[in-house]
Amino acid sequence: MNSGYKVFAPASVANVACGFDILGFALQKPGDEVIARFSDRKGLIISKITGAKGKLPYEVEKNTAGFAALKLLEHLGEAGRGIDLEIHKKMPFGSGLGSSAASAAASVMAINELMGRPLTKRELLPFAVLGEQIADGAYHADNVAPSLMGGMVFIRSNQDLDVHRLHVPKGLYAAVIYPHVKVLTKDARDVLSDQVSFKKSIEQNGSLGGLIVGLYNSDLDLISRSLRDVIVEPQRAKLIPNFYEAQEAALNAGALGCSISGAGPSIFALCANSLIAENVGHAFKEVFDNAKIENDLFISTINQEGAILC
Ligand code: HSE
User: What is the pLDDT of residues 93-128, one digit of tens each?
Assistant: First the structure.
């Protein structure tokens, strides 16, 4: 019977304040599902897409999941194989939660399972990154790597995909709010200046190092001092209404730190435990409810598994 394989890949928070393009972590939910099945037709086809309000293309080469799958099949010498892909978008699109990355990650894992699992998750990474590149034109793994492999991931080099899982202190929780405003990743990248002052780059490097040491030593105070972004957040905050109000509310509610999730508009906060994360979530919600901006709230531990068969 050709029932195929269904894979769930989770949302992720990229940048994590001080690691633009080189840090990210996976959430438990939301996430996307991709099903891969053999078919009698020739080649790869996207046979069904649900949940993206009809906005995603069915052309394989223009679709993040489709392109990632195609590149993997080419690598395996199986590009002519008849395969149907179904993409079920179960997370908001254009939210800063790594939606394109989740589809690409789920897609390569589903194809890999269908082909008898010739590659490890780590070996699948380049193909998923190529898929995600379709969405914003840039080659970075800070959403794809955590979505596929799980955990908190540090990327020494995107070019070489020199990717490392970091230790995460027990009990660490994330509160993430998605205010329903439109921010395209491409636009959020276009607002960034390519000039960074020497002083700011030293400060940011200090925070990045501090965050990694803090994670390894479960030093919550150091994590808190390090969850700062003096380069990207000040340039992107204007794209997200009420951002600074939400950040202040999260910190007052006890968050260790709070910044933009990926390219936004979602905002994340890391918290020492689930109760604080709930409080921070309420504080986030209050800000956007008061501003009459629809929103979705997600409270989650750091997902250590990444993409899974389901
Ligand atoms: N690091 C990326 C950015 C994540 O912030 O633009 C979004 O794809």
Answer: 889 999 999 999 999 999 999 999 999 999 999 999
141 and 191 co-located in one domain: no
Protein residues with CB under 6 Å of any ligand 1 atom: 14-15, 20-21, 136, 140, 142-143, 185, 188-189, 262-263
Is 70 exceeded by the pLDDT of residue 1?
A: no
Q: Which atom of ligand 1 is nearest to the CA of 20?
A: 1
Q: Which atom of ligand 1 is nearest to the CA of 188?
A: 6
**Residue-level pLDDT at 184:** 87
Together in a domain, 47 and 62: yes
Do 22 and 145 belong to one domain?
Answer: yes
State both tokens at 186. Answer: 């491409």
DSSP per-residue codes, 128-158: HHHHHHHHHS----TTHHHHHH-SEEEEEET
Q: Determine the pLDDT at residue 52.
A: 82
Average pLDDT over every residue of 135-143: 92
22 and 154 both lie in a single domain: yes
Query: Do 185 and 294 belong to one domain?
Result: yes
Structural contact between residues 61 and 98, judged by C-beta atoms closer than 8 angstroms: no
Looking at the structure of the chain, the number of domains it has is 2
